[in-house]
Structures are given as structure tokens and as C-alpha cells.
Amino acid sequence: MVLVKNETATSPTCVATMLEINIATLSGKTCLLIVFSKDQFPDVYVPTVFENYVADIEVDGKQVELALWDTAGQEDYDRLRPLSYPDTDVILMCFSVDSPDSLENIPEKWTPEVRHFCPNVPIILVGNKKDLRSDPQTLRELQKMKQEPVKFEQGKAMAEQIGATSYIECSAKTKDVCSFSFHSCKVAVKSHI
User: Which residues cross the membrane (predicted)?
Assistant: First the structure.
């Protein structure tokens, strides 16, 4: 899940707006943030507890500096994660297209938690790893478990079910993160700059 917070820059000559994005689910979000902020896919995965990335983007002609906060989605950190919720402007809930179980966690775990701590904050549902939807090895592995990748229509239906403002899909591996930056920033920035 991603939390977008807004802090206007303190320098009178600075025109940038700082948006903090905190991500709190599993399913490829760390790679997504690394590709988005550094334009490189990581060679090795290291589980995160709390990690910070920065990316500069332009939204509607305005320069925006994003502070991306990657927080742990594991159950061990359930008591720490809520500390990152105050002053959140937008939430991006992430799941993995190659893991139907991660989509089930959206209404069962993440939506109740977010509605409790951020009741009036808009949600964008994000399907990560969309490149694996047609990957032969992924399809074989899912077939062994009598599962299939999450279809775009299923993600869109889940977004409607949880009352999300929109549904987007991304792939860090293929560097298809444009929709990630466009939707998350546009929602937050439009209401604050």
C-alpha cells in the first residue's frame, strides 16, 4: 500500500512540492520503487522494513520531488506500519498479478487497515508484475496450484469493490512504471499545488 503525503517545500524560492509515498505491501513494490526512482532493476532482492527513495517528476508543468517510503507488509510489522499513516493524502494498495492470493489480501487485510487509519484518503489499486501475466514459467507454476494470473478485469473489479478511485498496472522489470507515477502524483498534486 502506498501513502502519499504532501509537504510544501519550506524555501520561498522553491517551487517544488514534496510528496511522501509510503508503500506497505509485498508483491514487487520494492523493485517498482527502485526502478521508478533510479531507473534500474535491482539484481538482488533484500526484504525491507523501512526504506526511502527519491524521484523528481513533473506534473502539470510543476516540478515535484517524491520521497518514496517503502514499509514492510509482513505481519511482524503490523504494529509499526500505522505510524506512517498520519497526514496521508493518497494510498496506493499494491498486489502482484502473478499472485491471486495477494489480491485476496486487499479486501481482507489492507482495506480494513487503511479505512481504520485513513478513513477519508483516496485509494488507487496497483497491480504489480504485469509482465508475468503471460510468462510461461509463471503460468506453469500457477497451473500446478490450479490458479491463473490476476486478469486486468479482476483488478478493476477489486478497485470498485474497495471504493478505489482507479486501478493501474505496472511492471518494474520492463520499466513500465509510467502509470504508477502519473496516477499517484496527479491525484495528490492536483489537490495540493
Answer: none
User: Could you tell me the three cell numbers for 119?
Assistant: 478513513
Q: Which amino acid is at 133?
A: R
Q: Is the pTM of this model over 0.90?
A: no
pLDDT (tens digit, 9 = 90+) per residue, 92-138? 888 999 999 999 999 998 899 889 988 888 888 989 899 999 999 99
Question: What would the DSSP string read from start to end of 97-119?
Answer: TT-HHHHHHIIIIIHHHHHHH-T
| 134-161 pLDDT tens trace | 999 999 999 999 999 999 999 999 999 9
Q: Which helix (H) or strand (E) holds 157?
A: helix 152-162
In the sheet with 62-71, reading across from the earlier edge strand, the strands are 50-59, 62-71, 17-23, 2-8, 88-96, 123-128, 166-169
HSE (side-chain half, CA atoms, 13 Å) at 51: 18
Sign of CA dihedral 73, 111, 172, 178: negative
Query: For residue 149, is it left (φ>0), alpha (ψ between -120 and 50) or beta?
Result: beta
Longest dimension (CA), the chain: 59
- For the chain, the structural domain boundaries read 2-190
The per-residue pLDDT for range 79-89, each reduced to its tens digit, is 777 777 777 77
Identify the CA nearest to 189 among candidates 53, 67, 21, 19. Answer: 19
Superfamily of domain 2-190: P-loop containing nucleotide triphosphate hydrolases (3.40.50.300)
